[in-house]
Amino acid sequence: MLSKRIIPCLDVKDGRTVKGVNFIDLKDAGDPVELAWQYAQQGADELVFLDITATHERRKTMIEMVKSVARQLNIPFTIGGGITTVQDAEALLNAGADKISINSAAVKNPELIEELARNFGVQFVVVAVDTKLVEGRNMVHLNGGRLITELETEDWIRKAEGLGAGEILLTSMDHDGTKQGFDCGLLNTITQMINIPVIASGGAGKVEHFIEVFEKTGVDAALAASVFHFGEIPIPDLKQKLKYHNIPVRL
Amino acid sequence: MIGIVNYGAGNIFSLTSALERQHLPYGMVNTEADLEKYTHIIIPGVGHAGAAMKKLEDTGLVEPIKALKKPVLGICVGMQLLTAHSEEGDATMMNIFPLQTRLFNKDQGIKIPHMGWNNIDHKNNSLFEGVENLTQFYFVHSYFIEYNPTFDIATANYGMPFSAAIHKDNFYGVQFHPEKSGIAGEHLLKNFSNLKQ
């Protein structure tokens, strides 16, 4: 049976992981390679790296980091952040990235999804969507939730699937950072509406939230950052508890 | 030493990295003469099967590969190339295995692509030596190889049973990505490198 995936997300700046990471055995918490390897050892099923570098050197630094990670890591990983062209994506693919995640570039230029899918296959293209409830409607937001678009979340996701997205990474900005649980209502609506895998993101605070999102919605994976980085939820414990609740996981 | 067929279908950095982690030496196969240099051959592949077959044909390596007597391993689309036909691009393939590569049927209530870690039920072929049965491997594909008891050496289930691995004479194929399948995947690559000619 296909397992539900647990995905730690790492923010990367200038080729270094940022946000405090609290692993006991870690020599260098800023080294993405060592961190990635540790997560793989713990049983993470996949990793997402989000590049938040703002300088013009970003692309070169990122390619080097992706290569270093690919050399060491024996599980799949996704790269997101600042990918706006087919050339950006191809460079990452050749450096060993399994998937790329696009967000605002896809909103601004939906044809990019189609182009990427045609060139590299739908399995390579993750469309990340940041959503926020505004006057009772779920609206797509950009810039970490600061900029509202005219797109309704459900419409945009349906369109992205049609254009060739292979997976949706849906982050609820209302839940992100609250540690009060995933947005199960919206995630359930979305998973019933489309036929590609969905990654739930935003709101994970305790083990019960992961159990809830897998029991109440059809999501394929759950992504979180701080609860893993600070060791609040050790991945082996999380997976044991999911298994206890008859949720298929890789142990 | 392992030779990797270099025909331009997808990236091979992850594969070469996995081989390096296992301290398995490798080189590239670009021409028919290169096939002689290696004891084992891997055909990688990501993307569109029809397009991949076209690229492989352009290298002129199809007939030389079919004539090989040394162990050959096709990975993902590289495995699908070994079948007779793929629904992806309605393409005629190498026909080493008289099998069909077909599109998953979403009417069975499954999401496409089949993406993630899935258990395999393997049949103790040397390729899986030391790999516990029902171990999970990493899959990412929309097309699959129909189950056939003659060639199947590992079965996975996604809406229906399909072949996760096949074997015929010196030819092997795996639908999952051993280079991305953790320790079990690395173990499988090592096993392949140990197969006798």
Word description of this protein:
The complex is a heterodimer of chains A (251) and B (197). By secondary structure, chain A is an alpha/beta fold. Chain A is built from ten helices and eleven strands. Chain A has a single domain, classed as Alpha-Beta Barrel (TIM Barrel), CATH 3.20.20.70. Chain A has helices at residues 32-42, 58-72, 86-94, 104-108, 111-120, 153-163, 184-193, 207-216, 226-229, 235-244; strands at residues 5-13, 16-18, 47-51, 77-80, 99-102, 125-134, 137-142, 147-152, 167-172, 198-201, 221-224. Chain A is globular and about 45 Å long. In chain A, 50% of the residues are buried. The mean pLDDT of chain A is 92. Helix content of chain B is 21%, strand content 30%. Chain B contains five helices and 14 strands. In chain B, strand 13 (161-168) and strand 14 form a beta hairpin. The longest helix of chain B is centred in the last third of the chain and has 13 residues, at 182-194. Chain B is globular. Classes of the chains: A alpha/beta (251), B alpha/beta (197). Chains A and B meet through helix 2 of A and helix 1, strand 8, strand 10 and helix 5 of B. Chain B: Residues 6-192 form the Glutamine amidotransferase domain. Chain B: InterPro entries: Class_I_gatase-like, GATASE, Imidazole-glycPsynth_HisH.
**What's the number of structural domains of chain B?**
1
Give the assembly state of these chains.
Answer: heterodimer
What letter string, H or E per element, gives the SSE order of chain B?
Answer: EHEEHHEHEEEEEEEEEEH
CATH architecture of chain B: 3-Layer(aba) Sandwich
Classified in CATH, the superfamily of chain A is Aldolase class I
Biggest chain-to-chain interface with counts:
A-B, 31 and 36 residues
User: Helical region count of chain B?
Assistant: 5
Global structural class of chain B: alpha/beta
The CATH C-level name of chain A is Alpha Beta
Mean pLDDT score of chain A:
92
Please tell me the total number of domains of chain A.
1
How are helices and strands ordered from N to C of chain A? EEHEHEHEHHEEEHEHEHEHH
**For the CA atoms, what is the radius of gyration of chain B?**
15 Å
Organism (chain A): Pedobacter steynii
Subcellular location (chain A): Cytoplasm
Pathway (chain A): Amino-acid biosynthesis; L-histidine biosynthesis; L-histidine from 5-phospho-alpha-D-ribose 1-diphosphate: step 5/9
Main location (chain A): cytoplasm
